[in-house]
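Hi there,

I know you've been waiting on this one. I reran it after we fixed the sequence typo, so this is the corrected version. Both the input and the resulting structure follow.
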Amino acid sequence: MKKLILYFSFTLFALCVLAQKRTKVACVGNSITYGYLLPERETQAYPAQLQQMLGETYQIGNFGKSGATLLNRGHRPYMQQEEYRKAIEFAGDIVVIHLGINDTDPRDWPNYRDEFIRDYLALIDSFRTAKPDCRIIIARLTPLADRHPRFESGTRDWRGEIQQAIETVAHVANVQLIDFEKPLYPYPYLLHDAIHPDPEGATILAKTVYSAITGDYGGLQMPMTYTDRMVLQRDRPLQIKGTANAHAKIKVSIAGQKKSTTTDSNGEWQVTLSPLPAGGPYTLSVTDGKSTLSYKDVLAGEVWLCSGQSNMEFMLKAATTADADILKANDDQLRLFDMKGRWLTHAIEWPTSVLDSLNHLQYYKEARWETTTPETARNFSAIAYYFGKMLRDSLQVPVGLICNAIGGSPTEAWVDRSTLEYQFPAILRQWTRNDFIQDWVRGRAALNIKKSTYKEQRHPYEPCYLYEVGIRPLENFPIKGVIWYQGESNAHNFTAHEKLFHLLVESWRKNWNDAQMPFYYVQLSGIDRPSWPWFRNSQRKMMNDISATGMAVSSDHGDSLDVHPRNKKPIGERLGRWALNSTYGHKQVVPSGPLFRQAEFRNGAAYLTFDYGEGLHSADGQPLRTFEIAEIDGLFEPAVAEVEGNRLKVYNKKIKNPRYVRYGWQPFTHANLVNEAGLPASTFRTEE
């Protein structure tokens, strides 16, 4: 009996000692901390999940108050609530604060925004008074989905102002700042009512706090594009980025260069390498002292991203010149990184397992850099391959191609969420039912997700989705520029596409921090779809609106019955011409066929001048065709076109006072105007 008493006494003493040594963490916040709308709040709220992650050496207190504001003159000030009093009495060793969401209420921010920083500092000081040596962690606000009823009337913009104020508070108060926005931002469907995370969303928040407290970010990790045989962009400073545990000592070495840095409290690090000349092979080594990542057979050269929809995805093995070209596809200096989707996006019904995986942003298969061989080239993009081969032949340096193209994808799927939220929010809402998406695209997506039990199922065609899963992960990898072949899924609404294409280029250039990053794209070819002449003309005009762009004409290689013309070699090479001329300064290379510049109307005729209009002639020896002319009424009649030097005279004797000219203005056109380089003219329509 005495032994038993001693045993229980010792056990009780040990438990008391353990309890005394437990680190106390006070989670302070609003309904998101509290766990509002969660089916089992006591176990699913982020503080409860944090307790499970941290274990028994920690004691977590949930002091969330639904509807609480940070502002002391807000509609429900946190510092006037019972939860605040209990949090002070708890005297946490660590205090995690997430407040500010409710301050976007029209009753609060418009009236008291100037008091936010002062009130936040006062809150922090009160916890430091209760326990002077406590560690304070404050969080940037969780996302608000665009379907929130006040999104455009103020919540979106005021929340952005509050985020900036929170960053100021972190700096002034010298406290750790964590990000509750970034890890949740790509998952709008995890927000029940556009505000409150579901259990999975709460798990993401708990993991964020866990890493912030422990410094455990999963050890040394590099972006997916870092593999053996990769190509690094030559002749420019190279930012090499990655993640590791907090405050780890990072060392990076390549080609005699050695750089070192320390991981910040959020697990992020970066170093800048001096420019590498074209060549190699090199070995890139990255270590945190505990583990080392070593990438072998690395080259320095020209790196291009090749993206869009199915005509960029179109494989070399299906091209008209495939048989001969695949056999010759042996080039150790041409490297391919092929990002293919796990599931096709054509009209098939996806099983539930596919839907579950898409919800977790796992649409792409794992990819690795490969050298060009017949085996790797045959399944690679034909357009990208011919573009890369032309650069290799002309520049005589290594070339790396990253292909990321998804069949049927609309432009909006490739634009980042923040850009659309601020500049085109209407396209985000009920995307499978709104007026911006074409019926066949809507039907294909609807069929794919038919088995879904989710109200807002994700699909690669969803606005922002392909940016989030396929472009944002590439931001850490330096590239020279982009080639793009897309538009078929947006051709029914060229005015919406004009806005979207501007936003796409802007958002990608922002992603790579390069305001003049070259962006060369393919003008749609010919097919029996009535909207395409207007769309092609819109694409032509955008070259003048967006700097550092160029357009490859493809209407001469269209197919009236097939949206996927097979003769891809000339199109890839036309993109290569733009890059050689405008990016690499090879001015002897003509980048384009004739591009309409100006029309002068006099004496019953139109006199047209063109950029790249030297040596105008017919491609087939026949008279120039598909020209039309109209008076002010816009009723077009067929016209005669005659070459006069480097300009055209266009007329119809029945049209006495011409005001408009158009060329190749058919969905599938037999237009035949070319320049001295044999490159076709873009279809066009003149305007007043």
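Quick highlight: The chain is about 30% helix and 25% strand.

Best,
R. S.
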